[in-house]
Amino acid sequence: MNDLNTIYPKLKNKDINFNNLDGWAISVECYNWILDNIPEGETIVEFGSGSGTMELCRYHKVYPIEHQERFTRLAPKANYILADIVDGWYDPEVVFNNLPDEYSLIIVDGPPNLDQVKTRNNIEKYWDRLNTSVPIIMDDTHREDEYDFAIRTAELLGKDWVEYKGWQKNFIVIR
Ligand SMILES: C[S@@+](CC[C@H](N)C(=O)[O-])C[C@H]1O[C@@H](n2cnc3c(N)ncnc32)[C@H](O)[C@@H]1O
To answer: How confident is the model over 89-109, as a mean pLDDT?
Structure first.
């Protein structure tokens, strides 16, 4: 992983708004990994949207799946899929009727925990309806539950994983 001394000058040349990264959003390090690994113009499916979606839209087509309407107005270029939470995950009818046919990356960054229930892990019920041949980013793996879920998913899918540690938070890439 490049450190921030390398990443910041590189992204500054690309006119990135750093205020939209880290905190609730994907990290600067995660964004940098995406720019390095997913060719410009290709499509990203993002479970859980926020300010980071605005930056993702600069160089990629983005399909964010989001359950809160207020977070579907931030990035005009995004192809938002607004889906209620049903049985602990995004309404699968809405999600799978609206996903693009082809995509190059899946980001798992939502839904947020509701009433202490780890909702984002419920994506595991739907792996067979997603294209798991593309890289999968599991965000927030500095947290034990997210880390354990990422490792379990890599084992389930029979794939390798690498954890990237950022200045604020970590993520795992499964591929
Ligand atoms: C970790 S956030 C997803 C962040 C997104 N991937 C990004 O890079 O901006 C998970 C969920 O929290 C909610 N959320 C997003 N930004 C938020 C914020 N600034 N404060 C509170 N909730 C937020 C949204 O419902 C989102 O689906």
So the answer is: 98
pLDDT averaged over every residue in the chain: 96
Instruction: Tell me how far the alpha carbon of residue 131 lies from the centroid of ligand 1, in angstroms.
Output: 23
Q: Indicate whether 53 pLDDT > 90.
A: yes
pLDDT at 60 > cutoff 70? yes
| pLDDT of amino acid 2 | 64
Task: Verify whether ligand 1 is closer than 6 Å to residue 54 (CB atom).
Answer: no
The domain made up of 42-174 has a fold known as Rossmann fold (3.40.50)
Answer whether 27's CB lies under 8 Å from 3's CB. Answer: no
66 Cβ inside 6 Å of ligand 1? yes
| 53 CA from centroid of ligand 1 (Å) | 9
146 lines ligand 1 (CB under 6 A): no
Ligand 1 lined by 46 (C-beta under 6 Å): yes
| Any ligand 1 atom below 6 A from CB of 112 | yes
Q: Return d(Cα 41, Cα 25) in angstroms, integer.
A: 21
Kindly indicate the confidence band of residue 83, based on its pLDDT and cuts at 50, 70 and 90: very high
- Region 154-173: mean pLDDT is 97
